[in-house]
C-alpha cells in the first residue's frame, strides 16, 4: 500500500508531466501562429459539397495566399466572389493572363457537371495545401462565445494553478 510520501511523489510527477505537456502545446501554438502570419497561411471551412468527394462538406483546409501567376491548372484554390458573397473554392481549369497583372481563372467544383458561370479576375489566390474531412465542425463549435468563455476560464485556472505557491518540504 502506498504511503503518503509516495502518493505525493506520484501526484507531483503527474502535475509536472501535465504542465510540461501544456507548455509544449503552448510553444507549438506560438510557432504555428508565427508561421501562419509569416507564410500567409490561414484556415477555411467547406460548407458545401461542390468539391466532394475530394474535399467533403465539413472539411477544414489550410490555404496559402499566393500570386495568381503561381496557380496551376488542376490545383484547388479559393478566390473572392462579388461583394457580400463568400469566397469560392474549386479546382482551377484554366488560367489566362490579362491586362495589368490580373489573371482570369476558370474554376469548377469536383462535384459540378460544368465550370462556374464566369471566370474570376484576380491578382492573388489562396491555394489549398492540405485538408482534413470533418474538422470544420469542432473548430466552428469551439469558436462560439460559450465555448471560448469556458476555454478562457480553464486556461486561467491552469495559469493560477501553475504559479500558485507550493509548500516547501
Describe this structure in words.
The protein is 36% helix and 27% strand. By secondary structure, it is α+β, with helices and mostly antiparallel strands. The protein has two domains: 1-38; 43-132, Umud Fragment, subunit A, CATH 2.10.109. The protein has a seven-stranded antiparallel sheet. Strand 4 (88-97) and strand 5 form a beta hairpin.
Task: Give the helix/strand layout.
Blueprint lengths: L3 H35 L2 E5 L14 E8 L8 E4 L8 E10 L5 E6 L11 E3 L1 E9 L3 H7 L2 H19 L6
Antiparallel strand pairs: 1-2, 2-7, 3-4, 3-7, 4-5, 5-6
Q: What's the architecture of the largest domain, going by CATH?
A: Ribbon
Shape: elongated
Kindly report the spatial arrangement of strands forming the biggest sheet.
Answer: 1-2-7-3-4-5-6
Q: What count of domains describes the coordinates?
A: 2
User: What is the CATH top level name of the largest domain?
Assistant: Mainly Beta
CATH superfamily heading of the largest domain = Umud Fragment, subunit A
Structural class: alpha+beta
Helix share bin: 25-40%
Largest sheet: 7 strands, antiparallel
Number of strand elements: 7
Low-confidence stretches: none
What distance lies between the first and last C-alpha atoms, to the nearest angstrom? 22 Å
Amino acid at each position: 500500500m502506498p504511503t503518503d510520501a509516495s502518493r505525493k511523489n506520484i501526484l507531483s510527477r503527474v502535475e509536472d508531466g501535465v504542465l510540461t505537456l501544456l507548455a509544449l502545446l503552448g510553444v507549438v501554438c506560438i510557432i504555428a501562429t508565427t508561421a501562419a502570419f509569416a507564410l500567409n497561411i490561414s484556415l477555411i471551412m467547406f460548407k458545401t459539397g461542390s468539391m466532394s468527394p475530394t474535399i467533403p462538406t465539413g472539411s477544414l483546409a489550410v490555404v496559402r495566399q499566393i500570386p495568381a501567376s503561381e496557380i496551376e491548372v488542376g490545383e484547388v484554390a479559393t478566390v473572392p466572389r462579388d461583394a457580400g458573397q463568400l469566397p469560392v473554392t474549386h479546382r482551377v481549369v484554366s488560367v489566362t493572363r490579362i491586362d495589368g497583372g490580373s489573371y482570369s481563372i476558370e474554376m469548377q467544383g469536383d462535384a459540378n457537371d460544368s465550370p462556374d458561370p464566369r471566370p474570376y479576375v484576380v491578382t492573388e489566390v489562396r491555394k489549398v495545401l492540405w485538408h482534413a474531412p470533418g474538422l470544420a465542425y469542432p473548430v466552428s463549435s469551439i469558436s462560439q462565445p460559450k465555448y471560448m468563455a469556458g476555454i478562457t476560464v480553464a486556461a486561467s485556472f491552469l495559469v493560477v494553478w501553475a504559479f500558485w505557491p507550493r509548500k516547501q518540504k
